Amino acid sequence: MKKLLFLILLISFPNFGQENIEVREINLENYEYPYPIDFFEVQAQQEKLSMAYMFIKAERSNGKTITLLHGKNFNGAYWKTTIDTLTAEGYDVLVPDQIGFGKSTKPKHFQYSFQQLALNTKKLLESLNIPSTVVMGHSMGGMLATRFALMYPETTTKLILLNPIGLEDWKLKVPYQSIDEWYANELDKNYKAIKEYQQENYYDGDWNEEYAQWAKLLAGWTLNENYPLIAWNTALTYDMIFTQPVVYEFHELVIPTLLLIGTRDRTALGKNLVSQDVSASMGRYDQLGKITAEKIPAASLLELKDVGHLPHIEAFPLYISSLLEYLKN
Question: Where in the sequence is the signal peptide annotated (predicted)?
Fold first, then answer.
């Protein structure tokens, strides 16, 4: 009888158990970003795609631009406090949503590669007449930022990697998952699952609204009738991350690089697919920061003790002071 009642509730109230999650449009048309959005047309793979971005100019510009690249489970909006501080310090700030993310197009057929996303970002910079920039990437954005710096060292004045994923090659430990398997997994997502994953992997201490807003934003997509298209793009980007490591090319970086690492982070792709012993050896940022700094010729390492995967949300004062100190040197 209880099971029957639960099923009736699910059918009658689609948001049951989702804490009144708001349904989000496929390109977040009904979600307001902290700064005005513009769109750059990308012609790629026989498609016209729209790449959303924020470009915020400082009132008293120092003539330098910083480009912020978001992580896989996020979009440009989560950089708000970073943007506010950097523009106050005189930096112009460019914040794109990559194709497949945030307010940008979710293509039906697209071969994702970090090279393609880097090329799109380079063309966006050219369209805005930005000849050089500091490039900062978080999580998946760190892999993209690394690829960008490898492809366009003349454009990249400094590289900043904020708890980047891809500091190890997960293919060596994790069985291959097909895109169809990633897709099936994404179709099962809801607010509860998203919250549990982020609470376990991203943060420490009590769950709060600052954390919840980003989980709710993702969960809002799961209630959209077009969610399968979003899930498919997510599956494709999982495959990109898994099959296109940058770890073997860190020694090729020729520009000053900062590794800004929260040492409590244990994020790693595929930990749920391996034994507990193997899982425990993955995503050890307390070790990976030091190992990676040894590989990059002009690297500096700043470790944020007991901070997790999102320093700019969990520990903003500590993170921003470390970032500004490096930028001023």
Answer: 1-17
With cut-offs at 50, 70 and 90, classify the pLDDT of residue 8. Answer: very low
Q: How confident is the model at residue 255 (pLDDT cuts 50, 70, 90)?
A: very high
Length of the chain (residues):
329
Ordered structural domains, the chain, with CATH = 21-328 (3.40.50.1820)
> Residue 148 is which amino acid?
F
Are 174 and 269 a contacting pair, CB within 8 Å? yes
**Does the pLDDT at position 259 exceed 60?**
yes
Place of tokens 């912020």: 68
- Which of 80, 91, 97 has the alpha carbon at shortest distance from 57? 91
- How much of the chain is in helix, strand and coil states, percent to nearest 5? 45, 15, 40
- The CA distance from 217 to 223, in Å, is 11
Give alpha helix (H) positions in 188-248.
Answer: 191-201, 209-222, 227-243
**Cα distance between residue 320 and residue 86, in whole Å:** 9
Site of tokens 């500004």: 324
Distances (CA, A) of 267 to 30, 56, 211: 30, 31, 16
How far apart are alpha carbons 139 and 274 in whole angstroms? 21
For range 90-119, the mean pLDDT: 97
Decide: 52 and 37 in contact? Cβ < 8 Å.
yes
Neighbours of 21 (CB within 10 A): 21
Q: Is 190 exposed, middle or buried (0-12, 13-18, 19+ CB in 10 A)?
A: middle
Query: What single letter denotes the amino acid at residue 308?
Result: G
Q: Is the dihedral of CA 134, 89, 77, 315 positive or negative?
A: positive
What is the distance between the alpha carbons of residues 210 and 23, in angstroms, rounded to a whole number?
19
Q: Which of 315, 277, 284, 319 is nearest to 302 (CA)?
A: 319
β-pairing, 257-262 vs 133-139, is unpaired
- For residue 252, give both structure tokens: 């090729």
